[in-house]
Amino acid sequence: MTTIAIPPGMPQYDDVPRYDVDAVRADFPILDREINGHRLVYLDSANTSHKPRQVLDVLAEHYARHNANVSRSVHTLGTEATEAYEGARAKIAAFINAPSVDEVVFTKNSTEAINIVAYAFSNASLRADADPRFRLGPGDEIVISEMEHHSNIVPWQLLAERTGATLRWFPVTDHGRLDESGLADLVTERTKIVSLVHTSNILGTVNATARITQRVREVGALLLLDCSQSVPHMPMDVVDHDADFIVFTGHKMCGPTGIGVLWGRSELLAAMPPVLGGGSMIETVTMARSTFAAPPARFEAGTPPIAEAVALGAAVDYLSGIGMRAVQWHEKELTAYALDALATVPGLRIFGPNVPVGRGGTISFALGDVHPHDVGQVLDSLGVQVRVGHHCAKPVCTRFGVPAMTRASFYLYTTTEEIDALVAGLEQVRKVFD
Amino acid sequence: MQLDQLYQEIILDHYKHPHGRGLREAADTDARVGEAHHVNPTCGDEITVRVTTDGKVFTDISYDGMGCSISQASASVLHELLRGRAADDASVVHDAFVALMSGRGQVTPDEEVLGDGVAFAGVARYPARVKCALLSWMAFKDAAARAGVGVSPTEVEA
């Protein structure tokens, strides 16, 4: 394994918090499964993570014991459901160090969270009395990057079409890093929002955002960070990151599907017009017009995914119990191990940073000329589950001149033995397609 | 699942040594030419199929594309099976191949009709890969229609 040397005076290797991976694995029932006669080797956590028993139990318990609608009942079950739902919001706020619980808006997923911000811009642009920071028109600019997931590209393309604003983007370097060399020309007084991925879902790159944040502040724009691949894997402090909005999704962090989070600064959420209209998001309604509730309710129209939110709260408890620093370090060691191991496979080319610094445990690669579908199929026959395809980041595939990639991604329950199984599986792929 | 059911020797052979690959111009300037470009949006695989016909017979079927072994081998088999056939005849083969791929592994293929296409019987058991096998066949159907020759009304039941 690669030894990571830490300069004297810094916290040393032994100071790093650790946990018992086998004990963690025992919490995840699915990890006992066999796939095609082999022990399951799940290397697709960037796609969706597995769920520990502690989360599954809370999900079942909610429906079995506390099921009722939220925010509208005086009865006991309604009160219990509301307390559980709002309690989950408080847990999530603490998990990302949000200054206020009301800054956490529950959404369906990251995609919906980004769309809420994009449509708030859109709706504000139609109203002369809206906050000017959210008003867009010809001459205004939206800045993203070439390494975004489609969910952080398409909503902004559509917003630019609706408002006449211009979409611009940071390029990606050959090493899979964000190319910030044009920062001053890219982010200017014309920029209204910069929406950037924190950790790339395809290259694994963790973007250092400080310089960009500084520039965003200089020009008076807003900053959204897509933290779908970072909040599950590292400690997140929204104050420290000095972002205006972050988004993430529950199912990639041991929680259920159907629940995600938009975090926004209080005063920005308060300045945003509503997006979805309906029950729970109003202050008062007449037949002619309505006024709206304060955030977060303003952005949570209709009955929300209650049990999912409560279970996401349990997922946050679970991760906090292990410690996000420990999770981050575990994955850093795995990544170092995997980069070394994959380097021994003849004909393997890694897309993205090939050192375990400034990157997470998501590694995309090509194996010679073998198509990723074929790589994934052979690996599946050996129980190894990887993602193949364009990973909802087609511009990244185009940037590196390939139609698709094979991706292995790790999480708190991944072991070095599983990485060994991947490497052995790749040998098998080479045999079939040699 | 047994991997060799999917990756039959015939499929791997067509993949490694594709027949008739590369887009070709029509030799006869009076020939009708139709072309279609199909993409599998879930994996990004692409194929362009060009048919040349005198109105009755597919005098050439050429193609170019990029994708997995299944999609590329399938295009090679398509070329082998349908080039030089009359439209009616091609329609029978096309229907048989689509039926095989839509059969979830329950259809027994007729080698008389499908030739090397029978090797794809195993692919039908892998729902995620059926679209790979059908990519060139669907592009061919569109290309033939654009050349004014109907092949098959069959729609795929995914």
Structure description:
The complex is a heterodimer of chains A (434) and B (158). Chain A has 434 residues and is α/β, with parallel strands linked by helices. Chain A has two domains: 13-52 and 323-433, Aspartate Aminotransferase, domain 1; 56-321, Aspartate Aminotransferase, domain 2 (3-Layer(aba) Sandwich). Chain A contains 14 helices and 17 strands. In chain A, helix 2 (53-65) runs antiparallel to helix 10 (306-322). The longest helix of chain A is centred in the N-terminal third of the chain and has 20 residues, at 76-95. Chain A is globular, with a radius of gyration of 22 Å. The model of chain A has no long low-confidence stretch (mean pLDDT 96). Chain B is an alpha+beta fold. Chain B has a single domain (3-146), classed as Sufe protein. Chain: A. In chain B, a hairpin with a 4-residue loop joins strand 1 and strand 2. Classes of the chains: A alpha/beta (434), B alpha+beta (158).
